[in-house]
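User: Let's play a game. I give you a shape written as tokens, and you guess the letters that built it. Ready? Here's round one.
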């Protein structure tokens, strides 16, 4: 399987342990915070988290919030899955504003039934293809992905890696948060024709051609300098 960003390097950090029943045991927010800080210390530019914890409030544990804030200050972007409950609900860390939340859509651009669509995601969430993709498996074979958001999040992480590579090629410092802003503001919004529940589309769906155009118009643009008028003009 050809990768999304073949020129980028990758670091895997385990957060789940083997449970006594043979299945993975859940990680705590504190364990996730430790893994994020490890990735930050190892020089990661993008941190993909295909996981999360259901939350009624959206308030992260103090240590997890601190790790997210450290990433923000360092310019390291966290991309996280929105969760697979299929409800008007949120997961931590995807609900954090500094995080780019990713839900899944199918080959027709429709949100998968698993994708969460809580209020926070209407601001910091986008949809990306996650269903019926050919993916590599650990045994050397391939499989077709289901509709879970954990498949869509790494697609977006790979796209961000590609866009940061373009910034480098153009002689600019890569800015992950500028790209986050571009992906959010160039996303294709839901068509409110009365047939769709537009909440399920989050902020909109990934629009890579528009994102590329925005970067090529002004490759040195920083996150603070991006607005809708700039993208339209």
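Assistant: Ready! My guess for every position:
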């Amino acid at each position: 399987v050809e990768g999304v960003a073949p020129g980028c390097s990758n670091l895997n950090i385990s957060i789940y342990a083997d449970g006594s029943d043979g299945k993975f045991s859940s990680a705590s927010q504190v364990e996730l915070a430790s893994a994020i800080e490890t990735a930050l210390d190892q020089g990661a530019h993008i941190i993909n988290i295909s996981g999360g914890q259901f939350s009624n409030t959206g308030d992260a544990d103090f240590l997890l919030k601190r790790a997210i804030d450290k990433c923000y200050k360092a310019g390291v972007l966290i991309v996280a899955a929105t969760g697979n409950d299929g409800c008007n609900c949120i997961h931590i860390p995807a609900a954090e504003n500094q995080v780019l939340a990713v839900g899944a859509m199918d080959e027709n651009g429709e949100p998968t039934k698993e994708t969460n669509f809580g209020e926070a995601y209407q601001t910091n969430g986008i949809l990306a293809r996650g269903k019926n993709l050919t993916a590599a498996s650990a045994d050397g074979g391939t499989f077709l992905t289901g509709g879970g958001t954990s498949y869509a999040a790494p697609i977006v992480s790979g796209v961000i890696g590609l866009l940061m590579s373009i910034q480098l090629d153009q002689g600019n410092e890569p800015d992950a948060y500028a790209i986050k802003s571009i992906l959010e503001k160039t996303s294709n919004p839901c068509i409110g024709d009365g047939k769709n529940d537009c909440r399920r589309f989050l902020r909109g769906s990934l629009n890579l051609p528009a994102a590329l155009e925005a970067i090529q118009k002004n490759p040195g643009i920083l996150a603070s300098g991006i607005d809708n008028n700039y993208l339209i003009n």
